């Protein structure tokens, strides 16, 4: 019963919860949750490009190309902001651009497209050691950079004008946040897929923000909600044989709904 | 030392093709209480941001003979509240401590004491551990005001500091400003100069250019206000002080 795949799934859920607590909370604070979805779709184009390169030129891990592509996506959003474009519009444009590229690349790799499609749904119970390693590397990167730049990122999204007057360049730290979001999102794709990244990254943080008394509590609670959702999702999938990520998403949404009961 | 205060020479600011400020020249003594008034879109916020060197501009700005970027730590800035993100469960104490925590990693007891002191001054000492985003607009404004004082700045730059505050808060903030203005330069943007006329040294009428500046009694004239707002605004003169008629609170 405790197969290596199950153990990997549990480790993945813990790591995903850390991403949900940090990246998820800050996306909610920033009010740009749409970015998570946008980057997830952007990653698809990257993965398809990676497969195309692997088929025609040289061997390369598609997910790493996806990572690179998503980081570029995030940097472009920063550049759009620098050009005074509305962030939602910027994400929308990059979304459209990368979806066009995704369809283009997918039609170029034809029979191998299923590899890329695998990223759309993902599977918590089919993770390889490499997938876990990527997740670990991403989590370490995210947590480290958060620890170092926490206040600067926070001030930049809270009160950019004052932050700038205090010598912090908000545009840099917001872009850094976007890049961290990109890293977090891509590392989750194998586990929960493009479609459900949003459910596991945003919903726990959104639920937690409704009941937490301060930022640290919000981050901690988001971790716990994501963890409960993920573990419960895996557990339930033994009884109802459907994808655990879908159940995790439903649990997270149910927890969010419960927060309405408060007050 | 350098007593020259703030010098603004040939300041022009463009947003794309749009000229928001055109050839603004001002010399502000230190200490002094300067009030900037003008219609919406006149460039008031733009002027403050240029003084802080937050936006690209043409011309020269010197504060105590230095570039604004070099002496940021002696300037307190209160931005217009609309731009603040209230989607974050940040605590009042963290907001007030921002100017300190932006510079150093660990805060001292003394910093906390100072933060509490300034919160008390604005009447928000009971809210130390409250969520900032859960406060009313006026309460938020008071907290932001306390934050502005944290670094004990020599220069205060305040963009509509009374927006959303009730009459009593407004009056107590004005009293406080008046008290601390003895050795500070305060540049304040407002739409209602009346409660401030008694403490104002210089008023600047701004509408893309400086329409006029100087003592309140000389500057607030019907002729100047008509140029400023593009409409007739009556002025009431009383005991050597003049008021813009039609405004609300009087101290
Ligand atoms: N980032 C920007 N991009 C383009 N135009 C801008 C930008 N910021 C300000 N403007 C324009 O510059 C002009 C001056 O703006 P500013 O914010 O300085 O006005 P204000 O006097 O502070 O007005 P208010 O009383 O409404 O606060 C306005 O016409 C505005 O539309
Ligand atoms: Mg303004």
Q: What does it look like?
A:
With 263 residues, chain A is an all-alpha fold. Chain A has a single domain, classed as ABC transporter involved in vitamin B12 uptake, BtuC (Orthogonal Bundle), CATH 1.10.3470.10. Chain A has 11 helices and no strands. The longest helix of chain A is centred in the C-terminal third of the chain and has 32 residues. Chain A starts with a helix and ends in a 5-residue tail after the last helix. The mean pLDDT of chain A is 92. With 251 residues, chain B is of the alpha/beta class. Chain B has 2 domains: 133 residues, P-loop containing nucleotide triphosphate hydrolases (Rossmann fold); 77 residues, no CATH class. Chain B has a 6-stranded mixed sheet with strand order 5-6-7-3-8-9, with helices on both faces. In chain B, strands 2-1-4 form a 3-stranded antiparallel sheet, with helices on one face. In chain B, α2 crosses α3 and α2 packs parallel to α4. The longest helix of chain B has 14 residues. Chain B is globular, with a radius of gyration of 18 Å. Chains A and B meet through α1, α6, α7 and α10 of A and α2 of B. The complex binds adenosine-5'-triphosphate and magnesium ion.
| Subunit organisation of the chains | heterodimer
Number of helices of chain A: 11
The coarse overall form of chain A would be globular
CATH topology of chain A: ABC transporter involved in vitamin B12 uptake, BtuC
Name the CATH architecture of the largest domain in chain B. 3-Layer(aba) Sandwich
Ranges of chain A with pLDDT <50 over ≥5 residues? none
Number of helical stretches of at least 4 residues of chain B? 7
The figure for the number of domains of chain B is 2
The coarse overall form of chain B would be globular
Mean pLDDT, all residues of chain A: 92
How many domains of chain A? The number is 1
The total strand number of chain B stands at: 11
Q: Mind summarizing the main beta sheet of chain A?
A: none
Helix content bin of chain A: over 70%
């Amino acid at each position: 019963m405790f197969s290596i795949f199950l153990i990997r799934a549990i480790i993945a859920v813990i790591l995903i919860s850390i991403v949900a607590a940090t990246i998820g909370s800050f996306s909610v604070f920033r009010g740009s949750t749409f970015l998570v979805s946008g980057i997830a779709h952007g990653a698809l184009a990257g993965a398809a490009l990676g497969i195309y390169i692997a088929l025609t030129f040289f061997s390369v891990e598609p997910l790493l190309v996806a990572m690179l592509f998503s980081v570029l996506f995030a940097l472009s959003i920063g550049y759009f902001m620098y050009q005074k474009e509305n962030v939602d519009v910027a994400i929308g444009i990059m979304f459209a651009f990368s979806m066009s590229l995704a369809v283009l690349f997918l039609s170029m790799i034809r029979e191998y497209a299923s590899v890329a499609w695998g990223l759309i749904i993902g599977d918590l119970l089919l993770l390889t050691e490499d997938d876990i390693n990527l997740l670990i590397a991403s989590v370490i990167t995210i947590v480290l950079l958060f620890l170092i730049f926490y206040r600067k990122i926070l001030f930049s999204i809270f009160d950019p004008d004052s932050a700038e007057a205090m010598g912090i360049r908000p545009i840099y730290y917001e872009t850094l946040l976007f890049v961290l979001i990109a890293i977090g999102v891509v590392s989750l794709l194998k586990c929960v897929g493009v479609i459900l990244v949003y459910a596991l990254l945003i919903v726990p943080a959104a639920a937690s923000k409704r009941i937490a008394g301060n930022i640290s509590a919000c981050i901690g609670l988001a971790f716990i909600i994501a963890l409960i959702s993920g573990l419960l999702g895996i557990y339930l999938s033994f009884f109802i044989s459907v994808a655990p990520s879908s159940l995790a998403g439903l649990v997270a949404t149910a927890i969010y709904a419960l927060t309405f009961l408060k007050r | 030392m350098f007593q020259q205060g703030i010098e603004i020479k040939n300041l022009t600011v463009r947003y794309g093709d749009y000229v928001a400020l055109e050839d603004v020249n001002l010399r502000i003594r230190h200490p002094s209480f300067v009030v900037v008034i003008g219609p919406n879109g006149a460039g008031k916020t733009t002027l403050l941001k240029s003084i802080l060197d937050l936006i690209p501009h043409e011309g020269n700005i010197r504060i105590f003979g230095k570039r604004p970027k070099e002496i940021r730590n002696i300037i307190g800035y209160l931005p217009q509240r609309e731009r603040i993100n209230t989607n974050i469960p940040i605590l009042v104490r963290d907001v007030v401590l921002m100017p300190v925590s932006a510079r150093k990693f660990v805060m001292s007891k003394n910093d906390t004491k100072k933060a509490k002191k300034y919160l008390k001054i604005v009447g928000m000492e009971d809210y130390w551990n409250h969520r900032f985003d859960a406060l009313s607009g006026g309460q938020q404004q008071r907290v932001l005001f306390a934050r502005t004082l944290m670094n004990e700045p020599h220069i205060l730059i305040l963009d509509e500091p009374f927006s959303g505050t009730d009459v009593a808060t407004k009056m107590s903030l004005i009293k406080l400003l008046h008290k601390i203005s003895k050795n500070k330069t305060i540049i304040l943007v407002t739409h209602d100069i009346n409660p401030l006329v008694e403490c104002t040294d210089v008023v600047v009428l701004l509408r893309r250019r400086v329409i006029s500046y100087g003592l309140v009694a000389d500057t607030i004239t019907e002729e100047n206000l008509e140029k400023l707002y593009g409409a007739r605004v009556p002025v009431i003169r009383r005991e050597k002080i003049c008021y813009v008629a039609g405004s609300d609170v009087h101290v």
